[in-house]
Task: inverse folding
């Protein structure tokens, strides 16, 4: 009976041929896609509940409690909107979209781990520890950004619906409403990852904490402008709801970066020395010792040479 093939030992430095890199990438992608598909299939059975989670806050803030016909008969007509669907296949398309987005978001721990596992063999031991910590911190930060977006949705909807001209009925397509909510959640979630990116650059030695602290004026201005553009409303409440937590996280990241720089300086005994003092060169001349004598050349016969020269040598030699 043939013996099973012995499993190859992994290189401690993570080196492997290109074919194995591609094979591992294929396996990691397959696991990530499988997790997304499984979660999306499960979410498809509960997609109405998922839609209600995002629809109810907006519907409570701007939804019409009565029909447009009853509103038209009222003298003091209130601006509101009715959430609608368009087309026969519209509900099915919305179900597929909501299921896929839910699959990508809810399975993020799985595909983030697969991404880290693919990059980990090429990292040093301390870099692996930092990479896993950053991945573990990235998911809660993204969730916190999405939570802030969810909380300001009613206020944002109230401000936007007030721009409706008087005497005009406002119909809110549900698919467009879900797209707006999704964009807000993604923008807020990704913006909360900015401090984490700065910390990654600091721990990687690319950016110092002192330099990050020197950017505080420009950072506050840039975050405020970004919040004003990213939020769909013109009220200052939504803008500061996004800008305030990002600025706070930025200063927390600066504090951690300064502590990390201090730790690196204390662990390096040469941190107080200049570059030319940390590794001095000894330029004192030293004896190279006795030279090795060259062996004598063997005598060569001149016979057989018509010009009388030594074979293998010219006149100069």
Result:
């Amino acid at each position: 009976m043939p013996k099973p093939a012995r499993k190859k030992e992994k290189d401690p430095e993570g080196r492997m041929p290109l074919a194995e890199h591609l094979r591992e990438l294929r396996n990691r992608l397959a696991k990530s896609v499988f997790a997304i598909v499984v979660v999306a299939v499960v979410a498809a059975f509960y997609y109405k509940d998922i839609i209600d989670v995002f629809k109810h806050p907006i519907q409570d803030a701007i939804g019409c409690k009565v029909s447009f016909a009853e509103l038209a008969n009222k003298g003091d007509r209130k601006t509101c909107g009715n959430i609608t669907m368009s087309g026969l296949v519209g509900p099915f398309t919305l179900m597929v979209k909501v299921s896929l987005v839910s699959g990508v978001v809810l399975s993020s721990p799985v595909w983030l781990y697969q991404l880290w596992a693919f990059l980990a063999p090429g990292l040093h031991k301390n870099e692996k520890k930092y990479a896993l910590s950053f991945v573990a911190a990235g998911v809660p930060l993204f969730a916190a950004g999405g939570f802030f977006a969810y909380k300001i949705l009613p206020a944002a909807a109230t401000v936007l619906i007030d721009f409706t001209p008087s005497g005009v009925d406002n119909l809110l397509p549900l698919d467009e409403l879900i797209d707006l909510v999704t964009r807000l959640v993604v923008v807020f979630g990704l913006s909360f990852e900015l401090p984490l990116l700065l910390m990654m650059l600091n721990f990687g030695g690319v950016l110092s904490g002192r330099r990050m602290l020197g950017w505080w004026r420009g950072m506050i201005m840039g975050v405020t402008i970004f919040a004003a553009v990213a939020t769909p409303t013109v009220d200052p409440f939504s803008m500061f709801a996004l800008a305030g937590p990002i600025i706070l996280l930025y200063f927390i990241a600066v504090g951690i970066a300064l502590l990390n720089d201090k730790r690196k300086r204390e662990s390096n005994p040469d941190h107080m020395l200049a570059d030319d003092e940390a590794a001095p060169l000894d330029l004192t001349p030293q004896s190279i010792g006795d030279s090795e004598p060259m062996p004598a050349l063997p005598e060569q016969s001149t016979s057989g040479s018509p010009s009388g020269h030594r074979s293998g040598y010219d006149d100069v030699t």
The CA atoms of residues 42 and 143 lie 20 Å apart.
